[in-house]
Give the backbone structure.
Amino acid sequence: FEKGEYFLSELLLGGEIFKGIMELALPMIKEGEGKKIGKMVLGTVKEDIHNIGKDIFKAFAEAAGFEVIDIGVDVPVEKFVDAVKENKPDLVGMSCLITAGISSMKKTIEAIKQAGLTEPKIIIGGGRVDEEVKEFTGADAWADDAAKGVRLCKELMGVEG
Ligand code: B12
């Protein structure tokens, strides 16, 4: 879409098709799986409504054996904190594609820590994240692609493979 080789509408439709395929494929991928390797609360941060990348990462994480509690897009700080309190996840995943979302991530991470919820490791992802944003926000890891994100989640959990 940025090089003009395909259009936004095709990306959006592609995202919907991917979602539909994963609904059919995930139960088959998960067949015969052992126990879950970890639990993750995942959402796109406040100010940001992009969901395509989050949903792709979620599908990759579920296929790898994570239980993912998806709390949606434009997620306020308090909703993240409440979801962490309620679900006691091993990991918190935050997706961010717009610059305004960077300060949302920082505020959310600070609020989670201030609430005494220091157990879960925090991974940020999406087009607007890099090492500098990781340092600024206080996250434990960052990834701008889903496969790398899942690898890092396993590393953060101390899981092999
Ligand atoms: C599609 C799109 C939209 C769609 C969103 C549809 C939807 N349902 O998500 C629509 C048209 C609605 C939209 C709206 C807007 N958009 Co928009 N959008 C895009 C676009 C073209 C593609 C994003 C996308 O889906 N990429 C494909 C996915 C698969 O990639 P991804 O998100 O990076 O995800 C991958 C990885 O990052 C990773 N990942 C993602 N999340 C996570 C989370 C974790 C934890 C991990 C580990 C990994 C991970 O896994 C994914 C697969 O590998 C980008 C351009 C770009 N270059 O990104 C602009 C872009 C993000 N949008 C932009 C803007 C400005 C907006 C608007 C503000 C426009 C406006 N003025 O209204 C609004 C947003 C309003 C808001 N408050 O959020 C800007 C942001 C600029 C900035 N620096 O802030 C961009 C960069 C376009 C640009 N070049 O200006 N947008």
Observations:
- The chain has a mean pLDDT of 92.
- The chain is about 50% helix and 15% strand.
